[in-house]
Amino acid sequence: MGNRLSEAITFHKAGRYDEAEALYDALLSENPSDPNALHLKGLICLIRKDLMVAKDLVGRALAIKEDAPSFHHNYANILAQLGQLEEAKAHYLRALELEPRYAEAYFNLSGTVKFTPDDPTIANAEALLEGGGLEKRDLCFLHFALGKMRDDVGDYFAAFHHIHKGNRLRAELDGVSDPLGDRMFHDRVTMAFSAERIAALKGMGDPSEVPVFVVGMPRSGSSLVEQVLACHPEAHGMGELPDINAIAHTLPKYLGGTVYPACASKLHGDILKGFSQEYLKRLTKDAPQAKRIVDKNLLNYRHLGLIALMFPNAKIIHTRRHPLDTCVSSYFQNFTSSHEYSRDLAHLGLYYRGYDALMHHWKQVLPLNILEFRYEDAVREPEPALRRLVEFCGLEWSDDCLSPEKSTHPVLTASRWQVRQPLYTTSTDRWKRYEPYLGLLRDILEPVVAEYEG
């Protein structure tokens, strides 16, 4: 049995989830109360976003082996995504009681609650940091956790110090972005999807009005938009789907080997129709009756040219927030993939400029109507902003959309605490708390800040 469990874990770590799950199932067929197999199968369900099954499996494992800190931690992660934040907090704290050096538990707890100055968790985390002996990965988790805690209690100097250290460690662990490479990719997309090319292929995709794409930068209000729409009885939120990016990078296989986005010059109706229909099958699988289904993979802003050709009737919602607020909030996130640029303030500013330039291009060349949803408008006067959002999606108004914090829709992003709160204005002008440390970022963003504020 031990050998099969080890083999399953090897498959699991390699991302070969079907093979791992088959072995976990074999173990559970022999012993339905095997806590390790229950727990690990639950983690595969969590990866697949099957949260209720994951909760059941990990909960059963926890009932058998209550003294396992990792079981409590992962059960709390599931609860947090389901919006059960108080229960999640209790399990994070139990994990830390069982394993006081559990740095990742401090990190995930920090994203689930708002701390007060007298919270003993802060002192415990600082004592762990001062005690030393942590591996680099755990140090990274702990600095990001303390950055969030210190931000919550208004100690902004200490908060920025911890976040800066966390980002330095994350860069050492996983590398940093290549600002020139990012800019060159944005430029290649602009050239590949010209107004002429888009006009030549207009109308060759699928006419469905079901897809709604939410794009933009992280920390710009996209989770709020998805939650609002998911509250509507005729809409459904799918979270951040990888499918459009996967389609984009599969195209060379069907178009003669030319890399994306240059291969767009060879696009034709059959390819567009085929991929759009496959995407729709994936999109509508869980909610076949929904009139609108939201894909909030923010990086789809890179692929709006392809999206416009695949779905000429799709709705595009561009979430925006003050550029400095967006970048500071992104810098405070421990992103592990896809957002490597966020680990350095200068890279972050340059990336934002490239994203902004590409969005200007899309507005000039796409036949689609793009709604700009400003976060500040939504928190200042929620009802008019949310009514515009719902109307843009072609849906009748529902009062349920006024209370996104009451939604039971899972939140799989760093915004899991924020979107469970009533709309609030305290996150506007957040950058001003950190103004002394943002000189280079402010210089880089000056033109886009002036435009946004103008």
Output the keywords.
globular, 21 helices, mainly alpha, Rossmann fold, Serine Threonine Protein Phosphatase 5, Tetratricopeptide repeat, five-stranded parallel sheet, 454 residues
Explain this structure to me?
The chain has 21 helices and five strands. The chain is mainly α and 454 residues long. The chain folds into two domains: 2-99, Alpha Horseshoe (Serine Threonine Protein Phosphatase 5, Tetratricopeptide repeat), CATH 1.25.40.10; 181-453, 3-Layer(aba) Sandwich (Rossmann fold), CATH 3.40.50.
Strand order across the largest sheet: 2-3-1-4-5
The total tally of domains equals 2
CATH class of the largest domain: Alpha Beta
As a percent range, the share of strand residues is 5-15%
Terminal CA distance reads 66 Å
What's the CATH H-level homologous superfamily of the largest domain? P-loop containing nucleotide triphosphate hydrolases
Q: How would you sum up the major sheet? A: 5 strands, parallel
Instruction: Give the helix proportion (percent range).
Output: 55-70%
Radius of gyration: 23 Å
Count of helix runs? 21
N-to-C series of helices and strands: HHHHHHHHHHHHEHEHHEHEHHEHHH
The number of E-state strands comes to 5
Uncertain segments are: none
CATH architecture of the largest domain: 3-Layer(aba) Sandwich
Helix and strand arrangement:
Blueprint: H1 2-13, H2 17-30, H3 35-47, H4 51-64, H5 69-81, H6 85-98, H7 103-110, H8 120-131, H9 136-152, H10 156-174, H11 179-192, H12 195-200, E1 211-216, H13 222-230, E2 235-237, H14 243-254, H15 269-284, E3 292-295, H16 304-310, E4 315-320, H17 323-331, H18 345-365, E5 370-374, H19 375-380, H20 382-392, H21 439-453
Parallel strand pairs: 1-3, 1-4, 2-3, 4-5
Helix pairs in contact: 1-2, 2-3, 3-4, 4-5, 5-6, 6-7, 7-9, 8-9, 9-10, 11-18, 17-18, 18-21
